Amino acid sequence: MDGKREAIVREIPGLRRYARALLRDADAADDLVQDCLERAFSRLENWQTGTSPRRWLFTLMHNLFVDGVRARKRRSELASAAAADIPQAVSAPEQNGVLDLHDVLDALQEVSPDRRAALLLVGVEGMSYAEAADVLGVPTGTLMSRVARGRQDLREVLDLVRRRRILKAVQ
Amino acid sequence: MTGRSFDERDIHLALDGELPREDMPAYEAWLETRADMRALSARYESDRALLRDALAELTSENLPPRLQEGMIGNERAAKGGHALVLRRLGAVAALCLIAGAAFGFWAGRQQFVTGETLAALDVVGEAVAAHQVYAAEKLHVVEVGASERSHLVGWLSNRVGTKLIAPDLRADGFDLMGGRLLPSGGKAAAQFMYEDQAGERISLYVAHCIKGEDTGFRLFEDEGRRAFYWQEKGFAYTVAGSIDENRLLQLANVTYRQLLAGR
User: Fold this and answer.
1) How close does chain B come to A41, measured CA to CA in Å?
2) Which residue, A29, B110, B117, B182, could crosslink A20 as a Cys pair with Cβ 3.0–4.6 Å?
3) Per the structure, how many domains does chain B have?
4) Per-residue pLDDT tens for B165-175?
5) The complex's ipTM?
6) Which of A16, A96, A122 has its CB closest to that of B53?
């Protein structure tokens, strides 16, 4: 049992990264990870040792994400609205070329959740199309087109951000 | 040779390691012949690198207490009451970053949706008009030349009432010509003029404006006249010129940084 625990705990950084990229809001993302871990530990018997817990955990988390996508969307919109009221709290983001690193995470939120998830699993988490399709519960062909369209969408949003570049508000 | 033909879809396959190894030489040969597809491939690769970099920061963060091993299993208790407050506090840093981005997006959109306070736009209008008038001048572009840089900066700072600097834009090909004092709604405004080798001119204009929320960069465009401007602590800063938008943005960016650092 401890081996299973450790194997799951090792996946936490990856799960957090995926959740944060999916949801953008740090707090909502950690909520999602926590829900996922709770579910994982309550269903340990569903997971066979010897196989990677990775796919299993990402699938659990994806299902929770889909279940909660509407509620969380409302929550993060509230957080953004509240954040917009306190521009004096802004800190200077690191710049990377033309766009800063936080711009890209914001831009990602403009990509639909289906495409966003596909793009992240393949592009950031390094899953194969087959693995990612399995996690998302869709045929491989669907996954492929989501990845391609997600990339196109992200490129368009980034171009828009570049054009109307918002550097930052200053305290 | 597989003899298969390639298209845009293969760019994604190649990028994701899904293109069969035996197809790679033919794919690369195809890419060699297609500059557009090569550019697209490079673009997707750089977007992906940006995304990975943005998320790499997170992986190096310490786990929040509620996600640490000892806490798992006590999640229900940890989720309620004061833990929620602590979590909110813990999220402040992230929220600050979100605030910047969200406010930036919000502010950027406001411009196109509802316009903005006339006062700020008035200042930008003045800046653009002043640029047009003096950039076109042959003999008397500036009142005080760049040879008296420190005098110029001190004088304009005193008159405008804020610590100014004349940004050094030489790395971007623009030399300071000098500056002048201008009236702006009953107060004083400063203009610094720059010129590049090709004779293109841009100017930085600083004037008082109605104190509002500080903003990120905004673009002003009107019949080929162009400026990037931002607002900070009751002053509006405008970088105006008729050069390429990206180049002007780069200059505005450098100006902004130098003003921030010089303060």
Assistant:
1) 8
2) A29
3) 3
4) 999 999 999 99
5) 0.78
6) A96
